[in-house]
């Protein structure tokens, strides 16, 4: 009968006393099976060793890369910038990093998702580590991590986030700004105009007899009118103007760096354009008109909401005077005095 | 006074260690940047988490924040935040010895942050017979309240932070930044143990 | 015979570190100051022979103390012990009359070598 214990002890002791060469083999095999590129250069930036990951990812293999300058082995590297970076590692004895977020890649290596990503080369996170060995000579270990997946998904995520952000600003029916975004924009433009002492005007407008239109032709017709009117107005605006749907059939336009005269002129053009454009719905011709209220920032307002109130009052006045017309906050006031 | 607060002796000891680390780091930086670095003694405060979030969210003109994790033996770990103001960051590429078109503004900030953090913490670690490893530095998203959001979402629980105000003045360049070391609770206890060990030698 | 010694540093630990690095026989006649103003008061009223001086301190700093010593025409050997070790700072303090610039953290053997070099031991 054999002594199991003795055998186990013996086995354990042989396993635990690995020779230095065995440990070296382990380290070497790890380095070669890593899914990370390992490249070591000396203080003159000449290549001392590289692992299998890099060997299999480098297409244009040079016969003997060991001993070559990193810049001749990898001519795609930005030499001046990278030399300075490598110098910081040697001189300060600190690690240095290079992320795909700032530089997509340093080494032009192919990646394993050639079809599903839009980049030809592997996205990389590179780390530069100072290595000091026994004869006090300095080396730099460059680790090259494949982050193509991260980069790809981050790109997708960003696209989705941009879309969500865009959607959250847009009114689904008319494709112009929704009330929330329009109001945020007004708050910003109001603050900007106050700070820089710039002009700012506001137009509020409302479709005339919209309820009647809905009752006579149905809500689908009402929706069509809202869409068409939004498009008509958009075509008359400058890029810097901010056009939004304020409520059901009420719209609002922010006009940066525009005085009251300019705003009134634009409002009149909108009024005329809509009144003279014939809309079609199920072979029927539909005529709509709008009433508009205009105001400008005069510096006496306590907040941007007051601007809305003033424009709204002018709009109410335009309605009271018979619709299909423009009224400004000042003329509204004179009317009251009259 | 919680168990995480430093005693007067511990605070004094830490301040001295940081001064020495700062001095040596500045010397190394001066050689690397090939210019004289005027050094002001960094002020060190230990700040409660809540207070820090409040102070940082009130800083309106912070342009960029770079974060870098560090970890050493004996459970000494944390995160360094480097905070920059708009007017301090105009000539970083120049200072680092790069041509401005060689790297983006973001990369300049990340690069200088990494150099400042690792140079300083390497010397500091050496003082306490330790050795540091580092995460890759990251630029936090540039929304106004990103700092307090970041602090609230951090992976470790921290109660106290070491606020180290570093002020580098470099001849011909104006450069300024604040470094904040966020230390998790357990790591603070570990640091206190290290400080006590050093103090016991006197 | 041990000279009268003043150690000026705002850090308690740093003062202890200097004290511990001094030759054994010197440690009995040591005064300490935690800032520049305090140091100048002691320097003016007593005959301090050897001063170990930190540079970065609140209020009057090490440079201020060196200038004060020159102004008061005091005869005392100053050894600057500082964390700010850039060459420019070293030449600056030497120009202001410091005998030697010693980098922090101070080591006993280095301190003693400097004292011997200047004939104080």
UniProtKB/TrEMBL annotation, chain A:
SMART domains: GGDEF (SM00267). One of its GO terms (molecular function) is diguanylate cyclase activity. InterPro entries: Diguanylate_Cyclase (IPR050469), GGDEF_dom (IPR000160), Nucleotide_cyclase (IPR029787), PAS-like_dom_sf (IPR035965), Rev_trsase/Diguanyl_cyclase (IPR043128). Residues 198-331 form the GGDEF domain. CDD domains: GGDEF. It is an enzyme of class 2 (transferase). It catalyses: 2 GTP = 3',3'-c-di-GMP + 2 diphosphate. Coiled coil: none annotated. This is diguanylate cyclase. It comes from Colwellia psychrerythraea (Vibrio psychroerythus).
Automatic annotation (TrEMBL), chain B:
GO terms for biological process: chemotaxis. Keywords: Chemotaxis. CDD domains: CheC_ClassII. InterPro entries: CheC-like_sf. SUPFAM superfamilies: CheC-like. This is CheC, phosphatase, inhibitor of MCP methylation. It comes from Colwellia psychrerythraea.
TrEMBL record, chain C:
InterPro entries: Bact_response_regulator (IPR050595), CheY-like_superfamily (IPR011006), Sig_transdc_resp-reg_receiver (IPR001789). The keyword Phosphoprotein applies. The keyword Oxidoreductase does not apply. One of its GO terms (biological process) is phosphorelay signal transduction system. Keywords: Phosphoprotein. The modification 4-aspartylphosphate is found at residue 54. It comes from the Bacteria. Residues 4-119 form the Response regulatory domain. SMART domains: REC. This is Response regulator receiver protein.
